[in-house]
Amino acid sequence: MNIFQTVEAKANVLPERYINMSTKELEERVIAIKKKLGSRLFIPGHHYQKDEVIKFADATGDSLVLAQLSAQNKEAEYIVFCGVHFMAETADVLTTREQKVFLPDMRAGCSMADMADIYQTERAWSELQQLFGDTILPLTYVNSTAAIKSFVGSHGGATVTSSNAEKLVSWALTEKQRLLFLPDQHLGRNTAYKLGIDLKEMAVWNPITNELEFEGAIEKVKVILWKGHCSVHENFTVKNVLDVREQYPEMKVLVHPECRREVVELSDFAGSTNYIIDMIEKAEEGSSWAIGTEMNLVKRLIQNHPNKRIISLNPHMCPCLTMNRIDLPHLVWCLEAIENGEEHNQIIVEDEVAKNAKLALDRMLIQS
Fold first, then answer.
1. d(Cα 65, Cα 72) in Å, to the nearest integer?
2. Domain 233-312 adopts which CATH fold?
3. pLDDT band at 69 (very low <50, low <70, confident <90, very high)
4. pLDDT at 315 exceeding the cut of 90
5. Buried b (16+ CB within 10 A) or exposed e, 5-38
6. Can you state the angle between helices 165-175 and 185-194, rounded to 10 degrees?
């Protein structure tokens, strides 16, 4: 680590006084600063955040909705995004240059987003063009870096969410003969399979070995899946589903499409975070559910629906480690820095990257 990296690392270390503050003191500081800044401050909180943070969010939702709400909130000078790095980047892409986006803890990243960096992607694209020619349209899950969104946008592609993935995959295959789906292979596979594409028509691009994993004639490939995954959702297994079926025969299994194909196949329902929330809200009193998604959300659903029996599909599942980086001390540290004019942890996406990333986001909105 060079001297500049050392200085930067120290600048992102939470001062000890915040660690020593009581919960009551921390909460009082958030309330006071929110009151002082008023409409100049907007705090979006992702569904997977801790309760101690969510309770102070001005809006909760998935990453794209929160970024859009940030952009719509023109009075907000300061967007303090309680989520992970790629989410704050998307907010910065969509908001004006007069608005500033902050991430309370810069360690809050996303392992899935990190599985596809721009250098790997450009190298893969070059190799795939040699294999398939100009027959591929790239799509990227919104759970990706701004650089990947920008790459996709500059090559005629679009972003997708877990809610609209089917529409965007269908659109992509009307534009080109094939598609490259980044960075989550499971969402890509589950979506393509649901649309009737055979598993034998799907290949996997391995960015570590820089090669296409596929058996058979490559001209049959329709979907190229980037070899990435969500470290939380990949931990739900077939055994988890079978155990629930054996122990609780009446229980419905509801999972996120970031889970493995075989887990989705055995489940009763699969859908986005909003789909999961809606299913539980509309479910009958006394109904039983095993849910395969991030633990903070599952715990919140259990708390909010005491008249329904809800468990995690994997009883040993832990909350997403990077999502849990944002806690009350880091939130207060960030807010006090804004209050004192000593802003830190601002997320800034370069103009050219932002322009092409916005292209990818806009194409998604048009097609969905």
1. 10
2. Rossmann fold (3.40.50)
3. very high
4. no
5. eeeeeeeeebeeebeebeeeebbebbeebbeebe
6. 80
The H or E element that residue 330 is part of is helix 328-339
Q: Is the pLDDT of residue 318 over 90?
A: no
Q: Domain residues of the chain, as ranges?
A: 3-108+323-349, 113-229, 233-312
At 319 the pLDDT is: 76
User: How far is CA 230 from its chain centroid?
Assistant: 9
- Tell me which of 7 and 207 has the higher pLDDT: 207
**CATH topology match: 3-108+323-349 vs 233-312:** yes
Q: Strand locations in the chain, DSSP E? A: 41-42, 44-46, 59-61, 78-80, 100-102, 136-141, 158-160, 178-182, 202-206, 211-213, 223-226, 252-255, 269-270, 288-292, 309-312, 346-347
- CA angle in degrees (0–180, nearest 5) for 363-366-368: 105
Say if residue 249 is exposed, middle or buried (CB neighbours under 10 Å; 0-12, 13-18, 19+): exposed
Side-chain-side CA neighbours of residue 250 (13 Å): 6
The pLDDT value given to residue 320: 78
d(CA 276, CA 264): 13
Of the two residues 13 and 357, the one the predictor is more confident about is 357
Confidence of residue 3 (pLDDT cuts 50, 70, 90): very low
pLDDT of residue 174: 97
Angle (CA) 114-256-239 rounded to 5° is 100
- The per-residue pLDDT for 71 is 95
Residues 6+ apart with CB under 8 A from 328: 23, 26, 27, 30, 52, 53
Q: Which CATH class is domain 113-229?
A: alpha beta
Looking at domain 3-108+323-349, its CATH superfamily turns out to be: NadA-like (3.40.50.10800)
